[in-house]
Amino acid sequence: MKNIASFQDIINLRTTDIYFMRVREILNKAGKNPHVVMDVTLSSRELPWLVLSGLDDFTAILEGRQVDAYALKEGTIFPPRDINGIPIPAVSISGKYLEFGLYETPLLGSISQASGIATKAARFKKRIGDLPLSSFGVRRMHPSLAPFIDRNAYLGGCDKVSSIIGAERVGINPEGTMPHSLLIIMGEENGWRMYDEVIESDAPRIALVDTFCDEKEAAVRAAKVIKNLSAVRLDTPSSRRGNFADIIREVRWELDRNGFSHVNIIVSGGIKEEDIETLKEAGATGFGIGTSISSAPSIDFAMDIVEMDGRPITKRGKFSGRKNVFRCPKCHLFKVSTEKSEYCPKDREIMENVLEKIIDNGKIMYKEDLKATRKYVLEQLKWFEL
User: Fold this and answer.
1) Residue 210 Cα to chain centre, angstroms
2) DSSP state of 350
3) Cα 183 → chain centroid
4) Largest Cα–Cα separation, the chain
5) Which residue spans within 163-249 are E strands per DSSP?
6) CA distances from 84 to 52, 87, 236, 313 (A)
7) Which end of the chain has the lower number of beta carbons within 10 A, N or C?
């Protein structure tokens, strides 16, 4: 595709901001290439917490370069600032500036968007709880990003993803329902029937019930056509659905009255975070989230020099020097410190240093395990409020 940069483009600095090329020219002319430490932090306090994601691409960019890097474990949920108001370094890199500093643009991009998607998915999962959450958003973004979107949505808490390549990236089976086009071409009841007859038996039987008729009437008909129907899906556009929660209540009522209380109700179509509680209360038992996750705001990470040739130094508004990041195992508070060990100021527990080495002189130490990382995210969600 014409509008996609290759990995070689990234490594060859084709995707970097031009001013870094000018920095290289000046430093080479001056004969300077200091050893620096650069921290990746989020200075904004707007988010109460975020999920770190994207270390797969971040480390790939730096592989083979003479640098060391430490980071929070992928999937770590953390506030932008610690208990004392100090920005928490998500990643810290050290080496000769020209060895890695010119990659600031793609390095930041690799974790900023990934962390944004993972954070949004985690916020939805926090609200949805144990009910199934599916990533339906790849159609809203460039198709080349499908595995990237689904990888980070899954890491953040989505249970299922719809794209084939995204599911392959994650290591799960792709899951979805049926499109309106099937029912328009085949007719509703014939479309439901053919889906049940043709599609493999281990695929869930979920009928779309808002193509032509009233949703509650179509839901009952679908349950009669597909004997082992597991759920109906409501994807009713906002221009037609009025009060979505009331439609869900009507569907639930009619399904129950007609002996189909086992049939669940999955909802999709422009659902936002603030809709979840109302839709759950109305009877929704599964959620397909698209644009809200796939086009989630990127995390506004910045990458700044905090040490040069062993001397702490940084720009205004930043905090100089090498740092450790500690987390209390009991109350989960974070503390940034120059010390090698810390006690939690709240409960006096010995805090854990949560920075891990992800690159050792160009060798990647980071090991990806998406299922374990997703589990780690879900465990931490219990510690944080929205």
Assistant:
1) 30
2) B
3) 32
4) 81
5) 206-208, 231-234
6) 21, 9, 47, 20
7) N
